[in-house]
Amino acid sequence: MTNRRKFLKSTVFSGLAVTTAGLSSMACEASKPIKKPIVISTWNHGLEANTAAWEVLSKKGRAVDAVETGVRVTEDDPNNATVGIGGFPDRDGVVTLDACIMDEFENCGSVAFLQNIKNPISVARKVMDDTPHVMLVGEGARRFAVEKGFKEENLLTEKSEKAWKNWLKNQDYKPKINVENHDTIGMVALDDMGNLSGACTTSGAAWKMHGRVGDSPIIGAGLYVDNEVGACTATGLGEFVIKICGAHMIVELMRQGLSPSEACKQAVERLVRKYPEDYKDLQVGFLALSKSGEYGAYSIHKGFNYAVKSNDEEELIDAPYYGS
Ligand code: ASP
């Protein structure tokens, strides 16, 4: 009985301590001026995508519309070998696309292993808005897209077919760090109303096995949004982002009071600690935005960058990294 009472007492006190710490960090956040609207996205292609997203944000539009509009620019670019049309195919020569989207109400929609439709992000948006489901894959996702009026087209461009035929000569499957064989666009935004949303879209790892799905369409891995706390997106070798539930972990670390940069750094450090044999040969990068418009990023290796656009900045920033 005494022991139980002691236990209860210490639990109550430690609970109070956590609550007090949480409250003081929340009070601190609340006193900061909120930087909005703002949009951030992964890699060089983020600059152009942010410009399109800004069209929506600057007219006081919703963050979810901004991120969908923004990443479609990258999906539409046939010269981009990692997203949408022109994306490098799998080892069978088939282009398969993955994407997901999440809004301020924590509604989410996702498609994976989608073929012949160049804007998977908009199909994911339709899954979110028009179905009782979160995720549709493969043939079911394609049929749904066609029913919703999306046009079917060949996504394998001459350039990516040539690259695939070249790869076939040696058939060496080794994802390379920061090279254009895996460079998703992940975008998160905070709108004028103070709401967060995010989108993530990719053709996945080049020369992947047919049927392979990475982190990008997985809610909690490639993307996560909690409108009370923040949003996070990921890029890099998806298998390792999935293994640590990367984006969700980072939002939860932010909930505990970490800044976006610190939260991204801790997630990378956890990956490195858990996979000491693997991390040297693979890249993973995280990008996060808080409810107050503070942002940050971190990657395993040098080379990950991200684009930021707000009322007073428009730039490409090199993310800090762990190193080898
Ligand atoms: N995360 C993506 C995937 O593994 C690729 C990337 O971001 O580079 O499919």
Low-confidence stretches: 1-24
The ligands bound in this entry are: aspartic acid
Described by the principal axes of the CA atoms, the overall outline is globular
Q: Please give the number of β-strands.
A: 12
Task: Give the strand content.
Answer: 15-25%
Query: Structural class, judged by helices and strands?
Result: alpha+beta
Terminal CA distance: 53 Å
Q: Helical residue percent?
A: 25-40%
Mean pLDDT across the residues is 90
* Second-tier CATH architecture of the largest domain: 4-Layer Sandwich
How is the CATH topology of the largest domain named?
Answer: Glutamine Phosphoribosylpyrophosphate, subunit 1, domain 1
How would you sum up the major sheet?
8 strands, mixed
| Overall structural domain count | 2
The CATH top-level class label of the largest domain: Alpha Beta
* Major sheet: arrangement of strands: 4-3-2-6-5-1-11-12
Number of helices: 9
Reading the helices and strands in chain order gives HEHHEEHEHHEEEEHHHEEEE
Going by CATH, what is the homologous superfamily of the largest domain? (Glycosyl)asparaginase
Q: Nearest-angstrom radius of gyration?
A: 20 Å
Q: What can you tell me about this protein's structure?
A:
- Helix 8 crosses helix 9 (260-274).
- The strands form two sheets. Strands 4-3-2-6-5-1-11-12 form an eight-stranded mixed beta sheet. It has a four-stranded antiparallel beta sheet with strand order 7-8-9-10.
- It is built from nine helices and twelve strands.
- A hairpin with a 3-residue loop joins strand 7 and strand 8 (230-236).
- With 324 residues, the chain is of the alpha+beta class.
- It has helices at residues 2-31, 46-57, 63-76, 120-130, 138-147, 158-168, 238-243, 246-255, 260-274; strands at 38-42, 97-102, 108-114, 135-137, 185-190, 196-202, 223-226, 230-236, 284-290, 295-299, 305-310, 314-318.
- It is globular and about 60 Å long.
- Mean pLDDT is 90; it is low at 1-24.
- The protein folds into two domains: 1-31; 37-318, (Glycosyl)asparaginase (Glutamine Phosphoribosylpyrophosphate, subunit 1, domain 1).
